[in-house]
Give the backbone structure.
Amino acid sequence: MAYKSGFVSIVGRPNVGKSTLMNNIVGEKIAIMSDKPQTTRNTIQAVYTDEQSQIVFLDTPGIHKPKNKLGEMMVKSAEDAFRNVDCIIFVVDESDSIGKGDSMIIENLKKTKTPKFLVINKVDKIKNKEELFEIIQMYDDLNVFEDIIPTSALKGSNVEELVNVIKRKLSEGPKYFPDSMITDQPERVLVAELIREKILLYTNEEVPHGVAVGIERMKKRKDKNIVDISAVIYCERDSHKGIIIGKGGRKLKGVGKSAREEIEFLLDTQVNLQLWVKVKENWRNLPNYINDFGLNE
Ligand code: GDP
Ligand code: K
Ligand code: MG
């Protein structure tokens, strides 16, 4: 059977137990990739890997009500992020009413066609089944979620079921990250994923999931606050290569520019980004292939 992988956005108010849930899902393998607040894009929270599949959990900031221009940009970026993931997990706690913060998130979720699941966490605090059924019913009435999964991240109850639900939404794809995540390469991974995200954005998903990005070189200059990055974009067909490069190289230039700007923001340094496009047929059928391209260096 072909390897499956995908990206999952995890959203929810602070304190509902998202981090605890991630910890429980990935166990010892957890890798908090980036704890930088204020980034306008989603960051990788954790990676779950097993023999058949890999799930990359993304943290999506900025889905709350925008307070200013920057806030608006963040909402926009969150909406983009939602479109490029395989499913969205919305986490709430066991409270028996839907608060303002949650309503806002739900309004945002309604705008995307991406499959959405609700996790009702902290069910260990619920006294009886009746109460749980009422809460489930309340969310079910919204008609937003494909499925509702009650969990206790603290006790580990029903967490496996959540993983199974997600797995069903994954499509064929590579093992993006090595089995044991090496924590000193989070930025490389983030940079690769950021470039990939821009490609999907600029090509209007004409090349959906068909691209991988390998960082061949990422090095800070000794004398200056500049990081040189060379990245290779792998696609499956010549026609895809054409789409990515665009007329007169315009699309690739756009991808490079917007990716560079975000990387500069992310790394807080000047960046010199060079992008190459190569055709590698069927790279998706080769689970570990992606690791040869710099991620696993
Ligand atoms: P986050 O802000 O959404 O990432 O929430 P955290 O994972 O940091 O959890 C916030 C608090 O809720 C911590 O004190 C956790 O121990 C607690 N917590 C998380 N999950 C559960 C749960 O399933 N049951 C109970 N009782 N507490 C939980
Ligand atoms: K995929
Ligand atoms: Mg947290």
About this structure: The longest helix spans residues 250-267.
